Amino acid sequence: MITAFDRTAVEVGAALALPSPKARELVRQADALHTRLPGLGALLAAGEVDYDTVAMVLDRTDLVHEDVMAQLEAALLERVRGWACFSRKQLRDAVDALVKEVDADAVKQRRTRAYDQRRVSVAAEADGMAVVRGTMSAEDGAALDTRLTAIAKKVCACDPRSLVQRRADAFKALTLGEPFGCMCGRNDCPDALAATPVASTPVGSTPAAPPRQSLPMGRQVVLNVIASAETVTGLGNAAGYLLGYGVIDAELVRELARDATRRLVEAPRFEERQALTYRPSDALARFIRARDLTCRFPGCTVPATRCDIDHTTPFDHEDPAAGGWTVPWNLACYCREHHRHKTFDTGWRDQQLVDGTIIWTAPTGHEYRTVPAGVGLFPGLGRARNSAERRRVAAARQRLHRHRDASTYNRYRNQQARDEVRNRRWRNGFRGRYLLFKGEFAHNAPSRSPFGRFVNDPFEPESLPPDWHPPPQDRADPDEPPPF
Question: What is the pLDDT of residues 109-128, one digit of tens each?
Answer without folding.
Answer: 777 877 888 889 888 887 78
